[in-house]
Amino acid sequence: MRRTSAKLAVLAVLAVPALGVAQEEPDTISMIRDTGVHRRPVDVSLLAGAPGFGLAGYGGGLRVALPLLDDGFLPRLNEAFFFETGVEYVHWTLTAGDFDSITVPLHARWNFYLDKDWTVFVSAGFELSWFLSEGIFSAPNGVAWFNMVQGGVLVFGAGGGVLYNFSEAVSLRVDATLSLLAIGLTIRF
Hints:
The protein has 189 residues and is mainly beta. It contains 1 helix and 9 strands.
């Protein structure tokens, strides 16, 4: 009996470190296949950067993402679908000159939760810009009213990005869209 108790005590002492490893392991396991029911918070992002692909200037703004589908479209993946809007200030340097604009993005954003640290997303939608020198719904000379790629009053917007999650409430966001290449901070409520 005494020998059995001693063996169990040694086994218990050896098992304690293994339990510690087992507790850390779920943090490193991929979450992309987590098919459980999720509740997604509202994201608020502060961004700063430069106008997108091939343009010069600077800009920044505030974006708010509202969850529309907490568990997205694909039942076998951990993903969510958001409506994202906000307001951005952009100083453009175009071939037609320098312009300042206030832009309101209207995007659909699709998040994929890879693990506890990393989330990737794609987005698409439209952006409505008000050029401060021209007035509402007016484009400066040499700037298209509607443009599929860059610089206009109404612009198609598409892109993607990554969120590095410091915690469940705070992330570093890197965003690459047709209109703004940005880095910022995302806070969840």
